[in-house]
Amino acid sequence: MYADDTVLLFSEKTDAEINKAINHDANLLHTWLCNNGLILNSNQGKTEFMMFGTAARRKRIDNEMTIEINSIPISNTNHYKYLGIHLYPSLSLSDHIHKACKTASSRLGLLRRIRPILTIHATLDLYKAMVQPVMTYCSTAFSSISETNRKKFERLEKRAAKIIFGEGYQRGDRMFCSFGDMQNMQCAKFVFRCLNKTAPDVFHDHFEKVHHQKATRANGQNIESP
User: Which run of H or E residues covers position 121?
Assistant: First the structure.
């Protein structure tokens, strides 16, 4: 029996409190695993910890942070792939976007080779199934990415449109949903789930509707982050 992708996450202002809390919770997890006939794989690459924060604070903390589970030290890492997302201490998504674009580009190359034997609808279906999910996966976190990274997606999108529709493709075709449209739709779904308490509990109070005294059509329709 396996319990992959288990994560302990803790946030606090002081280094000592973080160290104490993580060690405490990690050993509680070890006890639970033992009581339920499970084994924790403490090998490097299987069980690791990562500190998130500014470069200055991480430099100070990394040398002081010591995490042990059942007296076995856990190694620190600067890169971890979690549920398909490449995580770094700075929480930069640049490397993840680079890898996603590389994978999408490779799949577009395969799609281009078989395009002559496919109809437009079949090619579009393959693009939506094999390429677009690679670019839009976790796109709700892409709202703050740089213009350089955003243009990487746009270039792939233009290349895909030419493969599917040919040189005569016009932007705005309803058959082809752009990266920006897909991102906006995913963000809208996330906000809707938060407001309706169907998102994970930690996000239930992430947004709230704005109410004011004036009787306008927009009253209660605008949203802000507390």
Answer: helix 120-130
Please classify residue 50 by burial: count the beta carbons closer than 10 Å to its beta carbon, then call 0-12 exposed, 13-18 middle and 19+ buried: middle
Widest Cα–Cα separation across the chain = 65
Q: Where do we find the tokens 């930690």?
A: 202
Residue with tokens 């990415």, as numbered in its chain? 145
Backbone dihedral angles phi then psi of residue 66, each to the nearest 5 degrees:
-130, 115
Helix (H, G, I), strand (E, B) or coil at 77: coil
Tell me the whole-structure pTM to 2 decimals. 0.75
Name residues whose C-beta falls within 8 Å of residue 45's C-beta, 6 or more positions apart in sequence.
none
pLDDT in tens, 148-186: 998 999 999 989 989 998 876 665 555 677 788 888 888
Quote the CA–CA distance of 125 and 115 in Å, as a whole number: 12
Closest CA to 181 of 138, 137, 136: 136
- What number of helices (H) and strands (E) belong to the chain? 7, 8
In this prediction, residue 114 carries a pLDDT of 95
Provide CB contacts within 8 A for 10, sequence distance 6+. 18, 21, 22, 25
Spatial separation of the C-alpha atoms in residues 45 and 106, rounded to whole Å: 27
What are the residues whose beta carbons fall under 8 Å from the beta carbon of 51, sequence distance 6 or more?
A: 58, 61, 62, 65, 76, 89
CB of 63 closer than 8 Å to CB of 117: no
